[in-house]
Amino acid sequence: MSGTAPLALTIVQAGGDELDEVMSVIERSFDPRFGEAWTRAQCAGILPMSGVSLLLARSEDEPVGFSLSRRVADEAELLLIGVVPEARGRGIAGALVDRFVADSRAAGSSHLHLEVRDGNPAVSLYRQHQFGVAGRRSKYYRGPGGELFDALTMVYTVEPQ
Ligand SMILES: CC(C)(COP(=O)(O)OP(=O)(O)OC[C@H]1O[C@@H](n2cnc3c(N)ncnc32)[C@H](O)[C@@H]1OP(=O)(O)O)[C@@H](O)C(=O)NCCC(=O)NCCS
């Protein structure tokens, strides 16, 4: 899994059976200073909801990344994405964002959006995948010590084909 050898990456649609694997990625991916990670209860609670999609990326059978998104009417929101530190910089998050965009388009979504903490390196990831900053939500994330962080709203507009 480490090094720069080509990745044998598989991305599967996940559900409750894969929640342990997804939580192991979440627990290793997010810096607790920023209050961005979801708890197991939050993930389990949203999974049965209509339009929710949980994708799990595995490399050599090990869980290395995930994304969580939700479609409502013609909108799709990328709620959360994470890759374990030892597998970063190898395009796994990019593959998950590409899959979110492709699945959303296939489902007829015309407006794709997300929120991200201002200053999170993921802003570059989203920009690279044609998301643009559309707004700012002041003091949106709360760290464990009560520190507040702004969120940026980013959008991707699906052009009619
Ligand atoms: C953000 C995150 C998902 C990126 O995962 P990754 O698999 O390393 O990302 P990729 O390898 O697909 O990177 C694709 C592009 O994103 C950008 N990017 C990713 N990580 C970056 C970083 N630390 N600094 C700057 N740009 C970064 C780059 O543009 C990169 O393209 P490049 O490799 O051609 O330069 C990962 O760092 C992570 O899990 N962070 C913690 C959780 C989090 O904050 N998630 C986002 C909010 S929900």
UniProtKB/TrEMBL annotation:
It holds the Pfam family Acetyltransf_1. Signal peptide: none annotated. InterPro entries: Acyl_CoA_acyltransferase, Bact_Acetyltransf, GNAT_dom. CDD domains: NAT_SF. Residues 9-159 form the N-acetyltransferase domain. Keywords: Acyltransferase, Transferase. This is GNAT family N-acetyltransferase. It comes from Sphingomonas swuensis.
